[in-house]
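3.2 Worked example (two chains)
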Amino acid sequence: MTKFWTLLTALHTGAGPVVMLVYPLYASVVAMETATKVDDEQWLSYWIIYSFLTLTELILQSLLEWIPIWYSVKLVFVAWLVLPQFHGAAFIYNRLIREQFKKHGVFPQHQSKPTKPTKPKILHSISPHREGHEARSH
């Protein structure tokens, strides 16, 4: 029974990096080389959510250590985000994150005349779409 438990632990430990990093990295590179934007949205959404999840874990680390099933719950959640049958990352982004960013005025405004930025100054200064910079095209 000890060998079985060791094998199960090793599989669980190896599954995390594969599900959370290796496969999304591979799929992101493939998505960048396709003409469609649907897969780009899925994988960019994934990395946004994964970043939020990682930051949340850093902040709540001492609390999460007391939840023994946290890593398993996280692994199942990330698998749902990653698996192409579900497109979970795009779903979460479109239903939750996009709405919060819209609500707080973080998105750049598309206006015909240049006006003062509506974003907080710090967000305007670090925005990838500042004036004079063109967005990367496929």
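3.2.1 Second chain
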Amino acid sequence: MAQTTYLPTLKQLQYLVALKDHGHFGRAAESCYVTQSTLSAGIRELETLIGVVLVERTRRVVRFTPLGERIVEKARRVLREADELGDLARAAGRPLSGEMRMSVIPTIAPFLLPRILPKLRRDYPDLKLYLREETSGQACEGLNHGRTDCVLLALPYACGDVETAPLFDDRLFVAYREGEMDPSASIRPAEIDETRLLMLEDGHCLKEHALAACNRPEMRAEATMMGTSLHTMVQMVDNGLGVTMLPEMAVDAGILDHTQVAARPLDADNASRRIALVWRKASPRERDFRLLADVLAEARP
């Protein structure tokens, strides 16, 4: 009689990966929309099936064994491949239909999405677009782990082994309270007082793009990294606390409305960031992503 081989289920692998991502049984269970006892039982069944301990459980800490760490990475690949089975079917159907998970960085999402979402809903009513706003690092990690299908971000940024569809260039502007700087057509980096420069906190790639464009090493040391969003930065500038950098799409979307803040283009080499859509290489939905990129490109400032 042939020996029966019992294989791990996708659900068990999903529970294991969720526990690794959240480091907590309760939060992992919430992310999988199951009870904590169901998730815990599923992982125990997986351990029994393969005959090894994957997770050391204590009251305060969830710690993966070395083998558990390796199996989690393998599980991520298996789950990603399983997702692509559905992608293959969707790719054979109508363009831009079915579910799609897209991450968008915070310095793009509130300014570009309102322009383009109505068009997507009108022209592609069968597309169910799930949006997640997160920093470039978090978004690229989610893409590589299969949590996200594509990412709308700003280049240059190292996002791993991805395909890229550049959309348009987004110029950088210097924002200041009216009357604090010479209202010329543009502002050179040398005219910026680095001791009054307000920047987004670490994790936002706009900070790196702006500092690289200015090419003044002292700015990195002197600039105050304190803003959590571009809207917060504008409010600080409006209160006379300093100057900041804004992307053109934010200015064009009216971020300065009802303030005493003015903005002029930064006059420097590479004084722009390139907006792009990226996705995993060899994805079966490449046609969909390139079509989505074409639609997004129409929203350029």
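3.3 Remarks
The chain has a mean pLDDT of 87.
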